[in-house]
Amino acid sequence: MQDALVERLSAPVPRYTSYPTAPHFDESVGPDVYAGWLAALGSANRLSLYAHIPYCDRLCWFCACHTKHTLRYEPVEAYLKGLHAEIASVGARVSRAAPVTALHFGGGSPTMLRPDDLVALKDCLAHHFAFSPEAEISVEMDPNDLDDARHDALAAIGMTRVSLGIQDFDPKVQKAINRIQSFEQTRGVVEAARARGVRSVNCDVLYGLPYQTLETMTETVRAVISLAPDRIALFGYAHVPWMKKHQTMIDEAALPGIVARFEQMSMAAEMLVSVGYEAIGIDHFALPADRLAVAAREGTLRRNFQGYTDDRADALIGLGASSIGQLPQGYIQNMPATGEYLRRVEEGGLAVVRGYILTEEDRARAWVIERVMCDFGFSLADLAKRHPAFSAVIRGEAGRFVATDRDGLARLEGERFTLTPAGRPFARTVAATFDAHLASGRGRHSIAV
Description:
This protein is 38% helix and 21% strand.
């Protein structure tokens, strides 16, 4: 019965790191619109910055990020010159009365940057934006890039949190995804970061990879637990070879089936909870004192393009090729092609090529979907206060879902729509109930479990 349920509810749906999702962006939002949005930011706004480094010195075949492989540093140097230019262009349009409360370096592999380039990039950001003294600075790390000089540079830029990709420690799985990384190497990176004062360590683990089994997952999760990370992200591998051609290097016959994926996820989650981690949303776990766990308990957990976060900034400014930003008025995305991105920013302009202007209905549905993904439910009374014009419509959709729900995924109790324990693993599927754009058929998505 459980297997049939998993099979039936695993149809592809968005991950809902935004609403509407990126396939619905269009060219109606360009540089002029974005410039107006930036100029409107002021003292009432807190900013979160994301800087994208779209290069890796090895290409992991499982990766769905916007990145490219290079063994030469010259393309990286040229890109950094353009990134500095964009930072200056965007920063000139934003009031220094708007404080930066978070900065995230992502990729690609930000840690492949040379130490002096890491420091220069942070200095450029600090010159053009007003950083809060308490700003969180997080960096995605590839252990294969790191040495003492880079660790020292990361400490020099004030890094407070590391996000460390692990995926799986089994050698056969690592070979199948082109991600060779030993436990000893990973432990050394964690120890080096903590020795330099990093307050929070996040580890990413994947399930659903080729040749993964319950046994290999058990050993990987045990090893990760021994590192005592503050947070653990347990992601399902998204096999999207139509979007990422390098994923064709993965043998599809070696991928676990949907039921096996669900079993891997469930077992790993049980192991983490059993040793004291708190489950956060659909795929995160955190120690009770971690800010993400605190946000989940207090009902202030949020979800954006970086996944689950305790970041309370109301504007996320994306910098770099392909970066996505989220501002009060809507979403923007930069030119993904690196060469064209560089041409645009080096001419003194903005690199935005598409976006989306939010309607009031979008805002109502975005709030509902975010609460389903973060809190596994929402208050109909709160919805009515926040978005009265669309409260009745969404209330009706919630009622119809519960009335036709033969699987016991959700219930309506008074003024609250709540996912049941059985429904929580399928939060993406339930959230799709409130997605008015999904039926348009734009975009292909990964499976829901």
